Each structure stands twice: as structure tokens, then as C-alpha cells.
Amino acid sequence: MCLGIPGRVLERWEESSGAPMARVDFAGEEQRVCLAYLPDLVVGDYLIAHMGYALTKLDEETARSTTALMRDYGVLPPAEQPGSAA
């Protein structure tokens, strides 16, 4: 996931090699991300990743406002409305 889209950690684990990993939701798209540079991230934390590595931790307000701004500018598709047909 590029473009600096904020993501939310959904799950984390350690690989057999000891590398901390996470499943991260980037505006509806889930990706595997390595947490080697930010090993203290936990489920629910927000981050910016590049090339599969978490690089920056964000607070929830910044993550949500950045995602909303990216939707407003058309960088991300509109959020799906609850109950709408996908």
C-alpha cells in the first residue's frame, strides 16, 4: 500500500524468524505489514507503511482525518455506506 494511506492494526503475531507482523486495514484493503521498525504497535494502533514495513505511528484523529481528506480529493474511493449493496 503506497500513497501514505493510514492503516489500522487488526491482528499481530511473530513469524518463526522472530519478525513482528500485522494484518492491517488500509481503507478497506487488508495487507500484511512488518512491524520490525515499530515493534511496540498493538491491535487498534494506526500507522503509515511503505513497501510492507510500518514506518510511522499515527493517532486515531490524524488517521481518520487523513483518510477522509483522501476520500474528498478522490485519492480513495468513497466509504461504503452501511446496508448498501457492494
The CATH topology is what?
SH3 type barrels
Strand count: 5
Strand order of the largest sheet: 3-2-1-4-5
The parts where pLDDT drops under 50 for at least 5 residues are: none
- The helix-and-strand class reads alpha+beta
Largest sheet: 5 strands, antiparallel
Q: Which CATH architecture is right?
A: Roll
Average per-residue pLDDT, rounded, comes to 90
Strand content: 35-45%
CATH class: Mainly Beta
Radius of gyration: 13 Å
Q: Please estimate the helix content.
A: 10-25%
Give the termini distance in whole angstroms. 22 Å
Write the layout of secondary structure elements.
Elements: E1 7-14, E2 20-26, E3 29-34, E4 46-50, E5 53-58, H1 60-72
Antiparallel strand pairs: 1-2, 1-4, 2-3, 4-5
In brief:
The chain has one domain: SH3 type barrels, CATH 2.30.30. Helices cover 15% and strands 37% of the residues. It has 86 residues and is of the alpha+beta class.
